[in-house]
Amino acid sequence: MFESAEIGHAIDKDTYDAEVPALREALLEAQFELQQQGRFPVIVLINGIEGAGKGETVKLLNEWMDPRLIEVRTFDQQSDEELARPPAWRYWRLLPAKGRMGIFFGNWYSQMLQGRVHGRFKDPGLDQAIGGAERLEKMLCDEGALIFKFWFHLSKKQMKNRLKALRDDPLHSWRISPLDWQQSETYDRFVRFGERVLRRTSRDYAPWYVIEGVDAHYRSLTVGKILLEGLHAALSRPKVNPDRVSAAPLPPSIDQLSLLGSLDMSQRLDKADYEEQLITEQARLSGLMRDKRMRKHALVAVFEGNDAAGKGGAIRRVAAALDPRQYRIVPIAAPTEEERAQPYLWRFWRHIPARGKFTVFDRSWYGRVLVERVEGFCAKADWMRAYGEINDFEEQLSDARVIVVKFWLAIDKQTQLERFQEREEIPFKRFKITEDDWRNREKWDDYRAAVGDMVDRTSTEVSAWTLVEANDKRWARVKVLRTINQALEAAFVRSDKQDKKK
Amino acid sequence: MFESAEIGHAIDKDTYDAEVPALREALLEAQFELQQQGRFPVIVLINGIEGAGKGETVKLLNEWMDPRLIEVRTFDQQSDEELARPPAWRYWRLLPAKGRMGIFFGNWYSQMLQGRVHGRFKDPGLDQAIGGAERLEKMLCDEGALIFKFWFHLSKKQMKNRLKALRDDPLHSWRISPLDWQQSETYDRFVRFGERVLRRTSRDYAPWYVIEGVDAHYRSLTVGKILLEGLHAALSRPKVNPDRVSAAPLPPSIDQLSLLGSLDMSQRLDKADYEEQLITEQARLSGLMRDKRMRKHALVAVFEGNDAAGKGGAIRRVAAALDPRQYRIVPIAAPTEEERAQPYLWRFWRHIPARGKFTVFDRSWYGRVLVERVEGFCAKADWMRAYGEINDFEEQLSDARVIVVKFWLAIDKQTQLERFQEREEIPFKRFKITEDDWRNREKWDDYRAAVGDMVDRTSTEVSAWTLVEANDKRWARVKVLRTINQALEAAFVRSDKQDKKK
Predict the structure, then answer these.
(1) Are residues A276 and A220 in the same domain?
(2) Does residue B256 register a pLDDT over 90?
(3) What radius of gyration do chain A's Cα atoms show?
(4) Is B338 within 8 Å of chain A by CB?
């Protein structure tokens, strides 16, 4: 994989000087076009051997292009805010917006390679990380991002010479790399695992470019030309990609049976039972959230449901059990301008709670496979791939000990009608009913089908859906609270076991 | 100040039960109206004696109102990201957006009171903090925010009884306050310093409300009614406040002398001198940024200037001296939707660098007293108060060892014309010239007057303006670099001295 990057590529100064002005001008033009179109972000990943010119190249790109449209990001030591959340959170929070370019030093590849080289995990751990990177990049590309991955390479001998030269040059000695790089052992392991990573993550949508790093002219010109060509290709892509992928069909529904149809909608609680059970479950939740094992977890609760199914009321009963300092309720409405300039899941990642905290999403990332699907706000290909992306997302949360609980509050059509009418009559509830609600109601069957698919495709071992029979509000509220409590208890037991094993 | 909150206010249960439903409904209506108008945020500060019902009241407000429109924020331990920035940054980053309500526990008042009670500083330190709080709140209110400040009070005897009762109640014992509260000493000091703080910071635009905390009915109903009344008053304020304050006139210019006029615009450097000095200053900057004393500082450089004065080119020469991982360039254009939902300075606060880092603002917060003033984008009252707010802002940066360097790049009218024409002819520069630029040029004299006032009012000992004669780009670039270097060196010397004193 690295052979052709150890053969001494070089460009003489005259050729370089002759080519650079036109390249630079073209890069500036492309960058301007990128900003004007504002259709996609560019993400440049910088990896490779120490001393192979990574830093110099990034510096040069900043000189050649307009640095005001470039963000250089480093990911060294994690901050405590980052340590309290899933590992990918730090990358999500620093993604460049559409029209801009983000250069990521010390990205997910450096993290996995460092981990493997220093023995913090073995090959299975590395392969897991590789899989995560693949899924992340696939998702970013599907969302339109243009990704360049550069591996700056040197042979072992070249590296030793280079580090020695840098060390001896007083102007550059500050750049000298960490000591362990000067040992051959590290080089060998780094290259061996690097090969595995590159082999597995070089994909048509985000290929690796291995750049020989010895000659500055060669490596600069090569990187510049790759960037330019990639930018040109992406900038001239057609504006609308109607159905880029031929989305596979969903299984047809050929009988009348459905998960929602199988719910016993007559379940109810009388007032006395309700009050007793509510208080019991609230006290239980209050205690669990104060359990010291909660410090190792975070909690995310997703509330979806028919309009007027009682999401707000259920959320309030959950909140009432808690110290307001511990939870946050995030109502999901139309995305803001900054959110629209990012991949779909960005606006949810930004609200992921730190360890010990609880975030309630009042509607959620499932909007893509519900309202956006039914109303045609996004292409079929986009909501079809969302099932997989959402499963990946929730798995990352789960891996980081974020407990995810998901509720679909279901009511029947008649109950909804009665609640709509009631809301229109009560003054302080009238703001809860809009024309949209009446319009959505006309698409009852479409939503029902979408909910069915959603549950089939995203109710997983990692994070199951709970369907809540919500014709009776009391029943629904108690079931919601009880489900959260059970999830917390199960998670505490699981992590007790894991901790014991260690 | 606290006498009338120690007399045993109480409301019987029947009265309470009779009043709450209507109050609750009215609060919900007001909250909905707040969201619909989206004109201003509500900030509720919660302070006072431990055990006086702070937490319970916040919990109750979340139950009474729609918790999806409320954000409860706590400010306990600072995160390392917060510790690396000026103290106010943590409050700015969590301000509620227009239309929403933020409840701040553990706010700036708790911080200053804890500091004083535990002897981390004396009265002068407390008074400084008080002054900072006053300026912050005045600015927030001028920007439209509605601020409620609640002090929950108990007499010493009441507090002791309350803490004892809580401790003995197994359902509440987890709420028990830190041990030091159970000592009378702390109570006395807390109340004494609290009085000083309340006296000094109770202002017409953000008064304190002292609430006796013994009786839950009394304190809940009182807080609810104050919130409701305040919300009603604010929601019915006229939509446009043309000139709320009668802005004092600026001093007239009665002769032809001006600071900009006194610049020697013929200053220039020939090519050889330029190249030598540029390299010298760049190497000096590179060294200073790697100086270990830089770890205690951050650097902010503001670039303002006539259109086509060469801001971009000067910024690139600064960037060229640095490791791209160390600096960030923030181009300031029209604010985003999320930025428009916040006070004016919010969008600059969010980019304040952490210690050791450098942020370049390509245009800045001075937009308010330049383009917004000249183009009439904001009322005179708004840009007039901006001078003071900006001085406060920069003083906070400076106090936190953020070095602020500000440049006005000045060219004369003829030079600008030549550069505009040149830009229209060179392909890769054509995106740098727009119709706006030609339009702005027609207001040359207005901008000149605005720049004069800006420099007079915001060139301070804490953060001086550097006027840069930029007809000759070489001269300008070297002067910019040299000025930054001098500022860094001076700051290092200053902090060496401060550290020696300690």
Answers:
(1) no
(2) no
(3) 27
(4) yes
**pLDDT per position as a tens digit, B446-470:** 999 999 999 999 998 889 999 999 9
A427 reaches B (C-beta below 8 A): yes
Residue A229, chain B, CB below 8 Å: the answer is no
CATH number at residue A10: 3.40.50.300
User: Does residue A244 sit within a domain?
Assistant: no
Instruction: Quickly state the pLDDT bin for A246 (edges 50, 70, 90).
Output: low
pLDDT tens readout for residues A10-20: 999 999 999 99
B181/B276 same-domain check: no
Phi, psi torsion values for A280, nearest 5 degrees: -60, -50
- Give the model's confidence band at B180: pLDDT under 50 very low, under 70 low, under 90 confident, else very high: low
Per-residue pLDDT at A38 exceeds 70: yes
pLDDT in tens, B20-58: 999 999 999 999 999 999 999 999 999 999 889 999 999
Is residue B246 included in any domain, yes or no? no
> B437: domain range?
271-501
> Is B115 part of any domain?
yes
Examine the domain organization and report whether A217 and A362 are in the same domain.
no
Q: Is residue A123 part of a domain?
A: yes
Let me know: does A470 contact A389? Beta carbons within 8 Å.
Answer: no
H or E stretch including A383? helix A380-399
Distance from C-alpha of B486 to C-alpha of B478, rounded to nearest angstrom: 12
Q: Assess whether A59 and A130 both reside in one domain.
A: yes
Total count of residues recorded for chain B: 502
DSSP 3-state of A152: strand
Could you give the ipTM of this predicted complex? Answer: 0.85
**Average pLDDT of span B413-428:** 88
Using DSSP's 3-state secondary structure scheme, residue A332 falls into: coil
Q: List all residues of chain A from 10 to 69 with a beta carbon under 8 Å from chain B.
A: 25, 28-29, 32, 36, 55, 58-59, 62-63, 66-69
Residues sharing a CB contact under 8 Å with residue A53, sequence separation 6 or more, in sequence order: A152, A213, A216, A219
C-alpha A246/C-alpha A241 separation (Å) is 12
The reported pLDDT for the residue numbered A381 is 87
Coil, strand or helix: which one is A438?
A: helix
Q: Is the alpha carbon torsion for A482, A485, A489, A495 positive or negative? A: positive
